[in-house]
Design a protein that fits this description.
Number of helices of chain B: 12
Number of helices of chain C: 16
Radius of gyration of chain C: 23 Å
Largest sheet of chain C: 3 strands, mixed
Strand order of the largest sheet of chain C: 1-3-2
Distance between the termini of chain C: 40 Å
Oligomer: heterotrimer
Radius of gyration of chain B: 21 Å
Structural class of chain B: mainly alpha
Structural class of chain C: mainly alpha
Helix content of chain B: over 70%
Number of strands of chain C: 3
Order of helices and strands of chain B: HHHHHEEEHHHHEHHH
Number of strands of chain B: 4
Order of helices and strands of chain C: HHHHEEEHHHHHHHHHHHH
Chains: A alpha/beta, B mainly alpha, C mainly alpha
Largest sheet of chain B: 2 strands, antiparallel
Strand content of chain C: under 5%
């Protein structure tokens, strides 16, 4: 009823909107620079909340380090949520609403998101029509940018109705991570691998790439199948791996999709197997038993691939990021997701600084795609014409005392 | 509407068709339930030459099923007495798990705690969890069901769904949205002993040993005690029971208390057995346990236990052979088939309204 | 509220006037906001949900069959749009199958049919599905019906999620593709896109109007409004028809209805079928509007979301359901995330209100059922039924009572005991 009365009030008073909420926050722009807005759209509720909270912290830190300035423009940041508590995960409704909201906003010049590749498939076409630069901090699905193996029919062109590109990402696509995982398994002397995935865009796509790379490197893929993330336990699923004669296991998916229980059950069924995981499980919610992660005796068998470097190779801002992060949040060893969020925002600020006119969307996109030799926490990279990063190195991490510890860098074969 | 075919009071026609129909009505469900394990057993024998794989499935199934059985008891008790599907029951069980896990933290129980300390701590936890969920269940009945006792059937079912959502939200705020791993106090997956290639783990042993006394205690209590008599009388005919001087409201509250106690115990056993808890476990467990209760014959305590064990086995076999992602669809498929062809379930408690 | 409603009924033309005013406001809404503003977005979603709630109201409100698996029809409608209006079957007919579509869809591989054709298919498919799901419940009582429909909802959800493993291409090619007019769809084609979803979906492309685009929401809104108006019209016509009266008789007393010659099987199946059709039409619209068919949307909580709208507005009350749907969808998409979200923080609590939306829904269901079971805008007949039911045993602690002489058989509607 409130809506109706509001409408009547609007009719009566000629007010333009009910509950209008595009109040410009933040300080006034610098001299002649004006101000621009950067949106982020991440699932802040449900199971991926821990990762996305870390991401938003990383984004806010990057902005803090730059004093909300890029060149001579003031940068305002607005964090949107593409999930609902009711669904517990991203929803198409919320995602497209966020994309439209950013597209509407005259001052918006960049959009950081989405977290899930499936959600990006929904927001990319909308932002493509709006010509708004989009930087994803976490998407790895191949088909969003290229038609290489792992992409579906019609990808990626079906996401870009205007034919122009506006979407870039800072993490390497699955082809690279799949190859990295397969390479590290090969090095560790695996012969027969079992892959379980959570059936999502990220999980299923990465599983396809791991399987492809493993076969190229003469590893036998004994099992490659989806799971039900909501199952109470995976004892019989693990027993199936055992009868498949698997000696290395990798779960292709995110922590929220039952990863903790799955690794426990697989470890119990296959006590001699090596366990691997992608960056989807590279977080304290998986690694730290204090935060509901896997117990230490399972963790010592797990290796995780993350698209970040060894901490001693970070550039100066990166080193600074860690000390600030610890000051700010009391966490000396942030989740990789905090690093991804930080890098996404830092890249956006860098692009705004380089853009001819940082308040003009087209020139921001142009600057984004002309990123060359950017030194970052993730390594030195360019953004190519598809919007992919040129990084090919993956860090392999082990787990000790509930923390991810850098182990080695893998040059993915392929 | 005409209720489902009643097996009793039907003159057995000598015609072979009628004989077949009677036979199917009596044993069709049992044959249907045995089809899967027998088929897999034959396949295993021909492929691997032994039944250890099927044996492992069944052991996992029975131990999982023991937990479902405890939850199913709550459904069956409540349904038997007021013919209501207590939709929030699964979430009461979930909160039982959460309370247990919280108490471990409070008592500082860890793997390092000595055996004696562990046993004492867990027994205390068990009592506290049971009382908490029992009280919660009684409260739900008071708030959500009692005011609607004479309302249309749909109303209490809808409030039950509403309460289920509220409890899920409590769980969501309590431990967040992700599944939370908890301390593996009993080394749940370690080998307890092994029989001919079939491994029995600590968790399995716990599930059997904790469930059996609880179920026996409950059935004895209902059969022998005064309040148990009152419950059975109320279930048969509330009106007559009231005229005989039984306080129907108290009896119904007590039934909810018993169901809640069982759910609390199941919650603790679940937390020990799975070593992972999360706010959504109750919804899943609730549907599975309800299926179990229907399979056994809703209103029938022994049936609930039997149904729980059977559903547990179906789940594990499906996980292992068909693929875990299909398990839920398989369970619900069974539910629909049983509901349609034999709503009175295996042990067929004739309910007052439609058998 | 009810006093106002009562007075309104006393004035003969008041209802018509109100309805006209409401429609007028609905038509004017989009012109007050920017063409791509979140407000129109929320309003469009609200319209789509109204369509679903009206459908569910036919099943639950009119015929008294509690359906907890309504999401199944949303899923089937959405998948119809995904199958017949996207590049999902990319092998179909070689270059693609195109029916009455213009650029750019007409150049893409896959099956691309005009939205109006798809919506007809969606209605046909969901009607059939509704009747199929209804069949097993014919012999069951109220709460068992609820569970069976819930189970079907979950099964359909599972099939949506795992349908990417079901290869239907080979079956199709071996059977249907042999018929004239049907082209092979490729042996690798699967039933659904699974959790990866089907994206993008064709935008609505109506004759005589510009192609719909993502950034201008007004046409979408008007299309949704048109669907709702058609649904409303059908609802009112049905309610006052012979069939509608049969449904209401069924709800009030199944045994009496049967003995008065109401054909139970036909009446129940028609309720399921028509109710489902609305879900299918709205589902197809939503798939196109949201540009995706994502298997994770089809959760039990969605069924409850729609049921909550019906409960809130008033079971069986058409205008009530409209109000309930608007209220709940705005609560979910606007008030909780945008308006009240920071309230707990303001009073010093460390969480967002949106984390509570689950609980708020549950709380609404409980409160409505306990305090005002007839809903915000009650249907008169329903109110009488309730008063009769409650009044019979309203004395506290009286326990169940025998309703002498009402001839109720305690079958579906009343918690009465007879032996």
């Amino acid at each position: 009823m409130a809506v109706l009365s509001c409408l009547f009030a609007a009719l009566a008073l000629g007010v333009a909107a009910c509950g209008d909420d595009d109040d410009d926050e933040g300080g006034q722009g610098g001299d002649g620079g004006g101000s621009v807005t950067v949106y982020s759209s991440l699932p802040l509720q449900g199971a991926s909340r821990p990762q996305t909270t870390a991401m938003v912290q990383g984004i806010e830190l990057a902005l803090q380090q730059a004093n909300n300035q890029a060149g001579d423009v003031t940068v305002n940041y607005e964090s949107l949520d593409d999930s609902t508590a009711q669904a517990g995960t991203w929803t198409p409704e919320a995602t497209s609403a966020n994309a439209r909201r950013a597209a509407q906003d005259e001052s918006a010049v960049a959009y950081i998101g989405e977290f899930n590749s499936g959600a990006s498939a929904v927001s990319i076409p909308i932002l493509n029509e709006a010509g708004l630069a989009q930087v994803s901090p976490a998407n790895t699905a191949v088909g969003l940018t290229t038609d290489e193996p792992g992409a579906d029919e019609g990808e990626p062109d079906k996401y870009y109705p205007t034919g122009e590109r506006h979407y870039a990402r800072i993490v390497p696509k699955d082809t690279i991570q799949g190859a990295a995982l397969a390479t590290v398994m090969k090095e560790d002397g695996c012969t027969s691998i079992g892959i379980l995935h959570d059936k999502e865009v990220y999980g299923a796509g990465l599983a396809r790439n791991i399987a492809g790379s493993a076969e190229e490197q003469d590893l036998e893929v004994a099992v490659n199948t989806g799971i039900d993330p909501k199952a109470a336990n995976f004892r019989s699923v693990a027993a199936d791996l055992r009868s498949g004669g698997v000696d290395c296991f990798v779960f292709s998916g995110i922590t929220a999709n039952g990863a903790v229980q799955l690794y426990k059950d697989v470890e119990a069924a296959l006590p001699d197997a090596q366990l691997y995981g992608p960056d989807g499980v590279a977080e304290s919610g998986f690694a730290d038993p204090e935060e509901g992660g896997i117990p230490a005796d399972v963790a010592e068998k797990v290796k995780v691939s993350v698209a970040t470097l060894s901490p001693d190779e970070y550039p100066p801002e990166g080193q600074e990021f860690f000390s600030t992060f610890e000051e700010e949040y009391g966490e000396p060893n942030p989740d990789p997701y905090a690093i991804y969020g930080y890098e996404a925002m830092t890249l956006v600020l860098d692009v705004l600084e380089r853009a001819e006119d940082p308040t003009d969307r087209a020139s921001v996109i142009e600057a984004l795609f002309s990123t060359q030799g950017r030194e970052s926490v993730l390594g030195t990279y360019d953004i190519d014409e598809n919007g992919d990063t040129t990084l090919t190195d993956y860090g392999i991490y082990t787990i000790a005392d509930g923390e991810l510890v850098f182990d080695q860098t893998i040059q993915a074969a392929g | 509407m005409e209720a489902a075919t009643t097996t009793a009071a039907k003159p057995a026609a000598p015609a072979p068709v009628a004989v077949a129909r009677d036979f199917l009505a009596k044993y069709g469900l049992i044959i249907f339930l045995l089809a899967m394990p027998i088929a897999f057993g034959i396949r295993d024998l021909s492929a691997e030459g032994d039944l250890s794989r099927l044996g492992n499935n069944l052991v996992d199934g029975v131990s999982n099923g023991a937990i479902w059985a405890l939850v199913a008891l709550g459904y069956t008790l409540v349904y038997g007495i007021i013919e209501l599907i207590n939709f929030a029951h699964g979430d009461v069980f979930m909160l039982g798990s959460f309370v247990s896990v919280g108490l471990w933290g409070t008592f500082a129980l860890t793997v390092a705690t000595g055996a004696l300390g562990l046993v004492v701590g867990l027994v205390v936890t068990l009592f506290v969890a049971m009382i908490a969920t029992g009280a919660l269940n009684v409260m739900i009945e008071r708030v959500a069901y009692r005011p609607l006792r004479n309302a249309p059937k749909l109303a209490p079912l809808i409030t039950a769904v509403g309460f289920s959502f509220i409890l899920q939200n409590v769980g969501l705020l309590w431990l967040g949205g992700s599944p939370e791993g908890v301390t593996d106090l009993i080394e749940s997956q370690d080998r307890f002993f092994e029989v001919g290639g079939v491994v029995i783990t600590n968790g399995d042993a716990l599930a059997f040993t904790a469930t059996i006394p609880l179920v026996l205690g409950l059935t004895t209590f209902i059969a022998r005690s005064r309040i148990g008599k009152a419950m059975r009388a109320t279930a048969q005919d509330p009106e007559a029971a009231r005229l005989m001087g039984i306080n129907v409201d108290t009896t119904i509250s007590f039934t909810f208390l018993l169901g809640g106690l069982m759910a609390g115990a199941a919650g603790l056993i679940y937390a020990l057995y799975q070593t992972t808890v999360w706010y959504f476990q109750g919804f899943q467990a609730g549907l599975i346990a309800f299926t179990a209760a229907v399979m056994g014959g809703i209103g029938n305590l022994r049936g609930a236990v039997l149904g729980g064990l059977i559903i547990g086995c179906i789940q594990q076999m499906s996980d292992n052979r068909i693929g875990g992602q299909w398990t839920n669809a398989v369970v619900f498929g069974y539910l629909v088939i049983i509901m349609v062809f034999r709503p009175q379930g295996l042990l067929g408690e004739e309910t007052r309204e439609a058998g | 509220m009810s006093a106002v409603a009562g007075r309104l009924r006393a004035v003969p033309h008041a209802q018509k006037l109100l309805a006209t005013a409401a429609i007028l406001v609905a038509v004017l809404v989009p012109f007050y906001f920017g063409k791509g503003s979140p407000q129109i977005d929320d309003a469009t979603l609200a319209m789509a949900y109204i369509g679903m709630a009206l459908g569910l109201n036919l099943i639950v409100g009119f015929a008294g069959l509690l359906d907890l698996g309504y999401v199944a029809f949303f899923a089937i409608g959405a998948f119809t749009m995904g199958w017949l209006g996207s590049g999902f079957f990319s092998q179909a007919g070689g270059e693609g199958v195109h029916v009455l579509v213009s650029e750019p869809a007409s150049n893409l591989p896959g099956i691309h049919m005009n939205f109006l054709v798809v919506i007809v298919f969606a209605i046909i498919f969901t009607t059939i599905a509704g009747m199929l799901i209804g069949l097993p419940t014919l012999r069951l009582r109220g709460d068992y019906i609820a569970i069976v429909t819930l189970a079907f909802g979950e099964i359909i959800g599972r099939v949506a999620i795992n349908g990417d493993e079901l290869r239907i291409g080979g079956i199709w090619d071996a059977t249907i593709a042999k018929l004239p007019f049907f082209e092979p769809i490729g042996s690798a084609a699967t039933l659904t896109g699974g959790r990866r979803g089907i994206t993008p979906v064709d935008k609505v492309d109506l004759p005589f109007v510009e192609r719909f685009v993502a950034l201008d929401l007004r046409p979408w809104y008007f299309l949704a409004l048109a669907i709702v108006l058609i649904a409303l019209f059908v609802n009112f016509r049905l309610r006052d028809s012979r069939l509608g009266r049969a449904w209401i008789a069924l709800r009030e007393d199944e045994v009496a209805a049967a003995s008065m010659g109401v054909p139970l099987v036909k009446t129940k199946l028609l309720a399921y079928g028509t109710g489902a059709a609305f879900g299918g039409a709205s589902g197809a619209f939503l798939a196109s509007y949201l540009n995706t068919v994502n298997a994770d949307q089809f959760q039990f909580s969605f069924s409850i979301f729609i049921l909550g709208m019906v409960i809130l507005g008033g079971l069986g009350s058409i205008w009530g359901v409209v109000v309930g749907a608007i209220a709940l969808s705005l609560l979910n998409n606007y008030f909780i995330p945008d308006v009240f979200n920071t309230w707990p923080e303001k009073v010093g609590l460390d969480f967002d209100l949106s984390q509570l939306s689950f609980g708020i829904f549950g709380f609404l269901l409980v409160i409505m059922m306990v305090l005002r079971p007839e809903g915000l805008i009650p249907e008169r007949r329903r109110q009488l039924e309730l008063e009769e039911g409650i009044g019979a045993g309203a004395t506290a602690g009286a326990g169940p009572t025998l309703e002498g002489g009402t001839g109720k058989h305690g079958e579906d509607v009343y918690e009465t005991r007879r032996d």
